[in-house]
Design a protein that fits this description.
With 707 residues, the protein is an alpha+beta fold. The chain contains 29 helices and 9 strands. The structure holds zinc ion.
């Protein structure tokens, strides 16, 4: 045999062995992560349970698998520990295992499934999964020891890259913040409290989504509202209209109804959603969170909650918020003076000359119509959902170099739910799947949110093969009516942009470590990509491209576009005041043991004095962010500073510009949570981040004027 032939034969054998290894490794990996590796539509449909029995069975199976994985990690001898047998399996268990993803699916189902029995089974399954991870992972001293053993010898064993170093340190910090190094009797108390809190949080959210309160109103009580809109309302036996408290209905009536009694009734119903049940639950959550924080050695839960964030401490956040309040105070004062210059029919001041809370939206909308001649009814005709959605996808196609395809299949949780596949530009690879559940219905999550189900990862186990993300966008956009399609108000178009910002962050932010993928960033950075995309809405060219009259097909006339862009600062002072007050509320609620009602009153008197205080309103009972965001509602304003700074840079090149879009994806989104956000932003901008773009955008520069 000639030597050259021998080389070919050896190479061929080498390739064959590698190929066989890869095929076997891939099949073993897919078998192990049976519900998390999505390859085809059937896998997606199979991810979703169909019966309560299936929920129970799969919960049991996945928990048994998770327990086995845990035992394997613990069983590695100390001196043998390395990244592959310790950190990688820990990451997979906590971020990518069947049990973890199953918990995400059950969380979505508890909030959105139309069938009560499924919601209850999902709730029970989710509690079991949370209990497992509380007891067997974050509360497990043996697993913490495994982690610390590895940390002690990691430098002899491995050369870690930046992401691996970061994830190891994040895990250690999370364990320490959970109190694991405390004496056993204190730590076991913390574990019990944590479990109780998890159950209370789920109960709080569920109370809100299952609040189906409604009013019965006669036609004369709905004056000021478009007759076509009224025609789509359901009626009871007496002929009265049934008016629910979903967002589209609430907003339409509060903005337009000239009958004060109607606005007042609906305001009370809406602002007391979840009350009184959630008042009781929230007080328990506050007390238990505080107890945990103090046991761990923090002054309050707010201190504990912020310790891992960009902002670090409540004092820094408070300073940030108070400065914003002070900078926007004059702007709000001028706005209110303008809006109330002449009160519209059906609105009056309270006895002490203050604005009543149920009049605010009505007065503002009236002024908008009068001064800017912007009529939301007219505008929404240019934003039929279908066209708007397709135009959005076109923007992302050209800006982010991705492709979309709508997939049709049976077996999702409701007939309204749709599914998009996201590909790379040449369609050779699926990057992720996005479920869309966009319209309100009974017992459904009442806000808008993106539920990440499966993280996008590069599998180190399979030569960095990319596993696609799966996310669900849940919203409550105006439903189709009679013969008309779903027509979106500008605020709803903005919501869609916002939630797509989250969804695409999940899809494009594939990392090697599943716990750092996509939106798994610091909470006070997570609203950056979503609020960045909202800014597209204020661009004249974009508005022309995404609008299309649902009957004539015409884009928004230029005069209307001008009015929309001119209205950007119309209520920015009030917006900042309101957001900053809510952020102060969430911060202070958890900065000790606080009475939710007293705090509401206190902040109202300090910062909302232009409005009449109403003691019988309990907005906190439906303030869902108090569960997921805890003390961190400031994250919206904090993230917006970065969003506007980045937007300024992107705008210099253009909102369709492929190069800057690609840089944004590669230098920011693609890293998910695997880098310090400050570094990502600084790298993209070529300078440290600044607040000025944010203030200018809000119209809060030194020369304040109303536009
Ligand atoms: Zn968001």
């Amino acid at each position: 045999v000639k030597p050259i032939k021998l080389i070919y034969v050896t190479l061929a054998i080498g390739f064959s062995v590698a190929a066989i290894w890869y095929i076997e490794a891939r099949s073993a990996f897919r078998k192990k992560f049976m519900s998390t590796c999505i390859e085809k539509i059937e896998d997606l449909v199979n991810l979703l349970p169909k019966t309560t029995q299936e929920i129970e069975k799969r919960t049991q199976l996945y928990l048994e698998q998770a327990q086995e994985d845990l035992n394997t990690i613990i069983g590695v001898p100390t001196q043998m520990r390395n990244f592959e047998n310790t950190m990688l399996p820990i990451d997979r268990l906590v971020g990518f295992s069947n049990a973890k993803v199953w918990g995400q699916v059950l969380g979505l189902y508890e909030q959105t499934h139309p069938d009560k029995e499924i919601r209850t089974a999902a709730h029970n399954g989710l509690i079991r999964i949370k209990t497992f991870f509380n007891d067997q992972f974050i509360g497990n001293k043996t697993i913490f020891k495994a982690l610390m053993d590895y940390d002690a010898i990691k430098h002899e064993k491995d050369i870690l890259d930046e992401e691996q170093t970061y994830v190891t340190q994040e895990f250690i910090d999370d364990f320490l913040r959970s109190g694991i190094s405390l004496p056993e009797h204190i730590f076991s108390k913390i574990c019990i409290l944590r479990q109780e809190i998890d159950e209370l949080l789920l109960a709080f959210e569920r109370t809100i989504s299952e609040d189906n309160s409604f009013l019965q109103l006669n036609d004369h009580e709905l004056q000021g509202i478009d007759s076509k809109w009224i025609a789509h309302l359901k009626r009871d036996d007496t002929g009265a209209c049934i008016v629910g408290i979903d967002y589209p209905t609430y907003q339409t009536i509060m903005d337009n109804c000239s009958v004060e009694a109607t606005r007042k009734k609906l305001y009370f119903l809406f602002s007391n959603r979840g009350y009184p049940a959630n008042d009781v639950i929230l007080r328990k959550i506050i007390a238990k969170r505080h107890e945990i924080a103090v046991l761990i050695g923090f002054d309050s839960y707010a201190h504990l909650d912020l310790d891992s964030q960009m902002a670090k401490t409540p004092a820094i956040v408070e300073r940030f918020l108070l400065e914003l309040i002070s900078r926007s105070a004059l702007k709000e004062e001028r706005e209110l003076a303008l809006w109330c210059g002449s009160l519209p029919e059906g609105a009056t001041y309270s006895a002490d000359k203050k604005i009543k809370l149920w009049d605010l939206a009505y007065i503002r909308n009236n002024c908008k119509k009068r001064r800017l001649q912007i009529d939301e009814y007219e505008l929404c005709k240019y934003f039929p959902l279908e066209n708007t959605l397709q135009k959005f996808l076109d923007i992302y196609r050209s800006f982010m170099h991705i492709e979309f395809e709508e997939l049709f299949c049976e077996g999702l949780w409701h007939k309204d739910v749709r599914m998009l596949a996201v590909y790379n530009q040449c369609r050779t690879e699926i990057l992720g799947y996005i479920f869309l559940d966009l319209h309100p219905r009974e017992n459904k999550y009442s806000h808008a949110a993106c539920f990440p189900l499966i993280p996008a990862i590069y599998c180190d186990e399979l030569l960095s093969e990319r596993i696609p993300a799966v996310v669900a966008v849940v919203a409550n956009l105006a439903p189709p009516q009679l013969n008309d399609p779903s027509l979106l108000m500008l605020s709803e178009v903005k919501t869609l942009f916002h939630e797509f910002g989250h969804a695409l962050h999940s899809v494009l932010g594939a990392t090697h470590m599943s716990v750092l993928s996509g939106t798994s960033v610091k909470c006070d950075f997570v609203e950056m990509p979503s609020q960045l995309l909202e800014e597209w809405l204020w661009d004249e060219e974009i508005l022309t491209k995404i609008s299309c009259h649902y009957k004539t097909g015409a884009p928004l006339p230029y005069r209307l576009i001008k009015k929309i862009t001119a209205s950007k600062h119309f209520d920015s002072g009030s917006f900042v005041q309101r957001q900053a007050c809510l952020a102060l509320y969430s911060l202070n609620l958890f900065n000790g043991i606080t009475d939710p009602q007293e705090l509401e009153k206190d902040l109202h008197c300090k910062y909302r004095d232009a409005f009449d205080y109403e003691p019988n309103v309990h907005f906190y009972a439906s303030f869902g962010h108090l569960t997921g965001y805890g003390a961190k509602y400031y994250s919206y304003l904090w993230s917006k500073v970065f969003a506007l700074d980045l937007f300024g840079e992107i705008k210099r090149y253009g909102l369709y510009d492929r190069n800057i879009g690609q840089r944004y994806v590669q230098e920011v989104l693609a890293f998910g949570g695997s880098r310090d956000p400050n570094k990502l932003v600084e790298n993209f901008l070529g300078r440290p981040p600044e607040q000025s773009a944010f203030l200018i955008d809000l119209g809060l520069t030194t020369q304040q004027h109303i536009e």
